[in-house]
Design goal:
Elements lengths: L8 H12 L3 H15 L10 H8 L3 H9 L18 H18 L9 H5 L4 H18 L24 H7 L30
Length: about 200
């Protein structure tokens, strides 16, 4: 993998817009959640975008996080004893987290790419993925989420309704209000439009 130098001009402008999306307050909340969810042995990152990136970069903490949302016997990601030091192993670990997060229910549009985290290209996307994961965990409410439920918004859930056949039949005779009303409608007092047709013989 080639080292990427500083960016200039248009690419610098784009990169600075991406960096502005990063939320420092959200970082604090996510760090607190990860520590509560995984245990204090994960440590605490230095404040700021770079510290957050370095903390999560090798994929081990992310893997522990997604594993902590599953029951004891079915952990989706194998976490190595010693954190990987080789670049491709670290990227592989991050990719395993992303696969497990997707299987857990995080939608594709909320997922970051491995390089977003590994090269620090878009740490806001990393925050978005972790927020989506936290929201899902709170929504599922299966006893594996630890921490304050108010840290994340619950996702909207399907509310299925069952109707009896008689209720469905009644519904066919109701005129929806979007169609207007037919109450009091009559043709009394109506006259034809325009002049009557003149028949000249």
């Amino acid at each position: 993998m080639a080292n990427k130098g500083p960016s200039y001009g248009m690419s610098r402008e784009v990169q600075s817009k991406i960096e502005k999306k990063y939320d420092d307050e959200l970082e604090e909340r996510l760090v607190e959640w990860i520590i509560v969810q995984c245990g204090s042995d994960v440590g605490r990152p230095d404040r700021g975008r770079l510290g957050f990136q370095v903390w999560l970069k090798n994929g081990v903490i992310l893997s522990k996080l997604v594993n902590s949302l599953h029951p004891e016997g079915s952990k989706p990601v194998k976490v190595p004893e010693n954190p990987p030091t080789m670049v491709f192993k670290q990227m592989e670990q991050v990719a395993q987290f992303l696969k497990a997060a997707e299987d857990y229910g995080v939608i594709k549009t909320d997922m970051f790419q491995t390089v977003d985290l590994f090269e620090g290209k878009d740490m806001a996307a990393v925050q978005r993925t972790l927020m989506a994961l936290g929201s899902l965990a709170v929504t599922k409410n299966d006893g594996h989420y630890r921490g304050d439920p108010n840290w994340f918004m619950k996702k909207a859930q399907e509310h299925k309704r069952e109707f009896t056949d008689s209720q469905l039949q009644e519904g066919k005779h109701v005129i929806g209000l979007q169609m207007g009303s037919n109450r009091g409608a009559s043709q009394a007092g109506m006259t034809g439009y325009g002049r009557p047709r003149q028949i000249i013989s």
